Amino acid sequence: MTDHREGSFFGRRKGKPLRERQTALMQTLLPRLKVDIAAPPPADLKSLFAADVAAVWLEVGFGGGEHFLHEAARLPDIGFIGVEPFVSGMAKAVAALDEAPLANARLFDDDAGKLLDWLPASSVDGVYQLYPDPWPKKRHWKRRFINPVNLDRYHRVMKPGAIFRFASDIDTYVDWTLRHMRDHPGFEWLAESAADWKTPWQPWSGTRYEEKAVGEGRVPRYLEFRRI
Predict the structure, then answer these.
(1) Helix (H/G/I), strand (E/B), else coil: 88
(2) Which annotated residues bind S-adenosyl-L-methionine (predicted)?
(3) Bridging pattern class, strands 187-189 and 158-168
(4) What average pLDDT is seen over the chain?
(5) Cβ distance 57 to 125 under 8 Å?
(6) Is 20 assigned to a binding site?
(7) Which of 76, 84, 104, 119 has the lowest tally of Cβ within 10 angstroms?
């Protein structure tokens, strides 16, 4: 039996070599923006941010950071913690935050499970998980992040009534997610009609991956759940 508390939910962490500036920023700026899970978790998660924020959202696996950075810039009174273990994606986000600093943005460059285990209970107002690695081969499905253990993690850190938003262009992963969310007693699907899962949440900035998927003929689906 697979222990979903350990093991990789993502593929390789390194791609092409970083440019000199990116490498320098990963060594200097990232440590200042990174959530330090070696320290005790704060009593109030909002204290992690330099900005005075009214709520805290996570984005787990932000890719190149397009949606994460857009939302943090659009909603300065909301604290955003962006999680991305892939080095190139994190380097892009760090470079963007060097050019346009956001006092309501923090980062985490490791396995999201570690961060979720560290966060205080009932401390998060919402979670985005957009286009996670679908692990399309059946023998790899055990690596999909949506599983009973990680849903328990989400449920523990999310406040009652908090929102979980999931997007994917892979039909088998959409079905997989719906089944797992249905089987978990702590979440309810908010869709009332087909338009609710065919239409992105508004306002919607999209992601670079989504643009590529649509260009290749795949159809994104947008699922929204409430933490009970």
Answers:
(1) helix
(2) 59, 84, 111, 133
(3) unpaired
(4) 93
(5) yes
(6) no
(7) 76
Q: What share of residues in the chain are helix, strand, coil (percent, to 5)?
A: 40, 20, 40
Tens digits of per-residue pLDDT, 32-55? 999 999 999 999 999 999 999 999
Is the pTM value of this prediction over 0.85?
yes
Handedness of CA 83, 85, 91, 92 (dihedral sign): negative
Q: Which two tokens stand for residue 118?
A: 């560290």
Over its C-alpha atoms, the chain yields an Rg (Å, rounded) of: 17
Superfamily of domain covering 52-215: Vaccinia Virus protein VP39 (3.40.50.150)
Residue 28, annotated as binding a ligand = no
Say how far apart CA 169 and CA 16 lie, in whole Å: 25
117 is an annotated ligand-binding site residue: no
> For 46-87, what is each residue's pLDDT tens digit?
999 999 999 999 999 999 999 999 999 999 999 999 999 999
* CA separation, residue 49 to residues 32, 33, 42, 53, 107 (Å): 11, 9, 11, 7, 11
Residue 141: predicted pLDDT: 84
For residue 179, give every residue at least 6 positions away whose Cβ sits within 8 Å of its Cβ, in sequence order, or none: none
- Report the catalytic residues: 133
Question: Per the annotation, does 133 bind a ligand?
Answer: yes
Note the helical H segments in 136-170.
148-157
Q: String of b and e for 154-167 (b: at least 16 CB within 10 Å)?
A: bbbbbeeebbbbbb
Which pLDDT belongs to residue 11? Answer: 45
